[in-house]
Amino acid sequence: MNNNFIEVVQNTAISFGTSGISVVLTIGFLLLFRSTFNIVTTIKLLELANLNNTLLKRLLIEAPGIYHHSIIVANLTEVLAEAVGTNPLLASYLLLSWIGKIKRLYIFKLCEMIILIVKTLLI
């Protein structure tokens, strides 16, 4: 009876150990394949949707209106994606679609000035 208990404990320890090793290998290979083949996974989408992203922080500082607009559009798109039945994390990728405006922000400020001038001339 004592021998069977020891064997059960050994088998349990081996199964926990091998399952832990398989988890580590799976995550390691997932990261390797993701970076090698440029695969977008759910983990990558969660990383991109993080509001503490350095690019999003820079967008918040340099163009707060565009940042606010992108947050609203991403939230609306997430709700729409849930209603349609698709992956709502794909909508969070919209947050980064406005990052290009950081480099050429002067173009958008110029457009805002022109619109303001036209509005004042029409009034």
Report on the structure:
The chain is elongated. It contains six helices and no strands. The protein has two domains: 1-39; 40-123, no CATH class. The chain has helices spanning 2-37, 42-48, 54-62, 64-84, 89-92, 105-122. The chain is 77% helix and 0% strand. By secondary structure, the protein is mainly alpha-helical.
Terminal-residue CA separation: 96 Å
Report the average pLDDT across residues: 79
Range of helix content: over 70%
The number of helices is 6
Low-confidence residue ranges: none
The outline comes out as: elongated
Largest sheet: none
Q: What is the helix/strand order?
A: HHHHHH
> How much beta, percentage-wise?
under 5%
Give the strand tally: 0
Structural class: mainly alpha
Taken together, the total number of domains comes to 2
Please tell me how large the radius of gyration is: 25 Å
Seen as an oligomer or otherwise, the chain set is: single chain
